[in-house]
Amino acid sequence: MKKVYPDAKAALADVLRDGMLICCGGFGVCGVPEILIHAIRDSGVKNLTFVSNNAGVDGGGLGLLLETRQISKMISSYVGENKLFAKQYLAGELEIEFNPQGTLAERIRAGGAGIPAFFTRTGAGTDIAKGKEERIFDGERYIMERGIVADLSIVHAWMGDTEGNLVYRKTARNFNPMMATAGKVTVAQVEHLVQPGELNPDAIITPGVYVQRIVQLHNYVKPIENRTVRKRPAAAGTGEEV
């Protein structure tokens, strides 16, 4: 099975449709499949529901799809750092399904593992529990949460091979591994693509069986949400900071 596609547009061409449920890896702008998001934007599909920890930032990540109003609903745990998100929500133009972050992660993991539902104490007795089945276990109140299975998952990986095995780098790992398992079709953008056998088997986090399509990144520039610099000590003999 050929998994490597020449670009993001080709990898998504026969997959995208209006009204899809899409899982998107990333946290803030770290580990976000930016190139695949660009391709979704350019395709013009609309009325999308996205499962993502957050909705990107103004002008980046899923924020690009908010600009074009292609997202109708977000299933998220955090929506800060995005003024457009707040504006659309408060205007009634965007539906939000809030999840505690751990619950969101487990819903995605459960979907990928074939678990249709699970019980958690998180959110019991709050607005999160409204409309959900409740049970008592060991004297404690629990609510039922459903696993999430998406029509499409898009993820970012540091390294991958042509069979779809993926390795993530440090905090860019975040939600990507679980998102990769929860999609009926998973498309991965990969910074470094190698041949089968070149990855250390012990380093592989997502097995290739979960990944159907791969796009290799070229000249990829990682976005930085908040760039900060600290002043360096004065250069010798100048008395001035540099």
From TrEMBL:
<dbReference type="Pfam" id="PF01144">
    <property type="entry name" value="CoA_trans"/>
</dbReference>
<dbReference type="InterPro" id="IPR004165">
    <property type="entry name" value="CoA_trans_fam_I"/>
</dbReference>
<dbReference type="InterPro" id="IPR037171">
    <property type="entry name" value="NagB/RpiA_transferase-like"/>
</dbReference>
<protein>
    <submittedName>
        <fullName>CoA transferase subunit A</fullName>
    </submittedName>
</protein>
<keyword id="KW-0808">Transferase</keyword>
<dbReference type="InterPro" id="IPR012792">
    <property type="entry name" value="3-oxoacid_CoA-transf_A"/>
</dbReference>
<dbReference type="GO" id="GO:0008410">
    <property type="term" value="F:CoA-transferase activity"/>
</dbReference>
